[in-house]
Amino acid sequence: MVKGAKILGFMFNAQKSLFPVSWSFEPGIPDRHIPETWVTLMLGTHKELTNGRGGGREPYISLWDDEGRRLGQHWVENYKYIPDNNDLNKHVYKIQHLQNRDPSRTTRYVMISQFKLDDICLAAVQVSNGKESTVWHGDLGEYCGVEWFLSERSLPGKPDLKPKCIWLRSEKGGARSISWHTNDMLGTPSKLEQYKKDQKKYLCESTPRFGWWYNLGPSATPPFYRPPLKYAFDKEAKQEGGMLSPTDTFDMKLNHFDKDVAWMNNPAGTWDKMTGTEILKLGKRSQQPEPESPEAQQPEASNSTERRDIKRRGFNKDPSHLIITEAEGHEASLVCNSSSSYGWDVASRREGKYCDMTVRKLYDLCDSIHKSNCFDLERKVLVGHGGISARGEVSALGVPKKAYDSTAHWK
Fold first, then answer.
1. Where does the pLDDT of residue 84 fall: very low under 50, low under 70, confident under 90, or very high at 90 and above?
2. Given CB 3.0 to 4.6 Å as the disulfide criterion, which of 38, 51, 123, 379 pairs with 151?
3. What is the pTM for the complete model shown?
4. How far is CA 235 from CA 142, 174, 176, 194, in A?
């Protein structure tokens, strides 16, 4: 089979309809079944957007088999950062299965946790042991309401596919951990047809399939399917297909799982939808971290100045940075019209729009038609109701003042 030809994941088009993605990072896939899991992280941001410190500090990575038994973990070394380049060879984490009596077991559940002070924005995660390979894309997180932003980076070899990236960050309101059921990320035809029957319910209201957490520590366990799900075979893709009992996977009620728990009493994956077993809510953000994770709880804004700064920034990660883009799929209206976007101000040449991310307000780019209450791309300022005078003086009436120290140009 041609490299990258297998369907390992799925994404969403502009109409939020699912489509399969035949992409893989071959150096991140072992050439045979091995007793470890290789996890490849693809980020959506550059060092220019992270204070020159790469993609942020490395996250914790935890793995479980289909029975909910832990296989292994990548534990973070102090002050080790993810490389800021787009060389995925440097983003492959090879995790040995040292926490299970049978190291040949295949990873079926993954949790990625960021409990350092640096934010990271994940665009894609490939998981493989040589026997089974899958790819999770950030589009799913955005679809289900996780904080997200546009990604400059496309899938290597697929320049038109730019997954959205989702934030793992320590500030209040941001997810610190995400978890998912790996084989449910396969984008095979019968699996996607099943999801499309009720996308939100299958993908966002079936928490073991995909969940996100404000405070779930790296030594905690997310919910698992018990008993393990059974699947049909997709004859067209010659891979795993849809579930045999699909509706058994739905959460019993909306918000069934408390996203603010710090850890869960779920040592063997005992969540059982059929018997109504509840996950115990053992810890909140205000409580002490679990003993195995001394950095699991980072303080929220430490003083009044920091709290005021966070409030002033609104949904803007850095008001002094501007992104100017020409790419399709990077329309400013996407981030402005979303209730979960978080990032930088965006000016889209293709769309002719500008988004002030502090308040998520959309403006036209100034041109021969729009001469006031618009964004002047050349001056990089908002033009108020008075427009620009004959002497070049820019009106600030009715618009916020903008001052950019840096600009990124996305193609």
1. low
2. 123
3. 0.88
4. 30, 40, 38, 15
